Amino acid sequence: MTFEPVLIGFTCNWCSYRAADLAGTSRTKYPPNIRLVRLMCSGRLDPTFVLKALAEGADGVLITGCHPGECHYLEQNYKALRRYHLLRRTLQSLGIEAERVKLVWASASEGLQLAEAIRQFTEEIRALGPLRWNARPELRSEDAPLEAVP
Ligand code: FES
Predict the structure, then answer these.
(1) In degrees to the nearest 10, what's the CA dihedral of 148, 58, 122, 12?
(2) CA distance 92 to 25
(3) Assigned CATH class of 7-136
(4) Given the DSSP bridges, would you call strands 101-105 and 60-65 parallel, antiparallel or unpaired?
(5) Which one of 10, 63, 70, 109 would you pick to mutate in the ligand 1 pocket, going by the greatest count of ligand atoms within 8 A of its CB?
(6) DSSP notation for 82-129
(7) How far, in Å, is the centroid of ligand 1 from the Cα of 64?
């Protein structure tokens, strides 16, 4: 039986969410493994959102945002880029493959490219196999649940 990864995609309202919408309206298929979560900007992504998604069952997280220089909130996607690198280092230090988190830039007109990026990410995570965060005692901590900063 083929492993079907569960993926969470954090999308920016102004670009990648619209790109996903465009993919849908132009009938460009992408794997149904991904659940998209819309944020107003990639800069809104708190790193704990990603860790919480992985801790609660996701096998991979795709972060998407406007291309550098095109963020509607000036430089927030550069902050997302820095958080992405921080997340990858954090995952590595926990013994988790950094490749389980990926950052992709996609403008509103790049429905095809986003669909291809989702397809590619799904295959990459499928090749890695399930994360099973809860089955790894070194990652469990009942004393310190992950909470997003309000
Ligand atoms: S508005 Fe899209 S990444 Fe900031």
Answers:
(1) -20
(2) 38
(3) alpha beta
(4) parallel
(5) 70
(6) HHHHHHHHHHHHTT--GGGEEEEE--TT-HHHHHHHHHHHHHHHHHH-
(7) 9
pLDDT digit string, tens, across residues 9-67: 999 999 999 999 999 999 999 999 999 999 999 999 999 999 999 999 999 999 999 99
Helix (H, G, I), strand (E, B) or coil at 65: strand
Torsion of CA 134, 138, 144, 148, to 10 degrees: -60
Query: Is ligand 1 within 6 A of the CB of residue 107?
Result: no
**How do the residues of the chain divide into helix, strand and coil, expressed in percent and rounded to 5?**
45, 15, 40
pTM: 0.91
User: pLDDT tens for residues 126-145?
Assistant: 999 999 888 877 776 655 55
The alpha carbon dihedral of 149, 36, 32, 67 has a sign of negative
The sign of the torsion formed by the CA atoms of 5, 137, 148, 42 equals negative
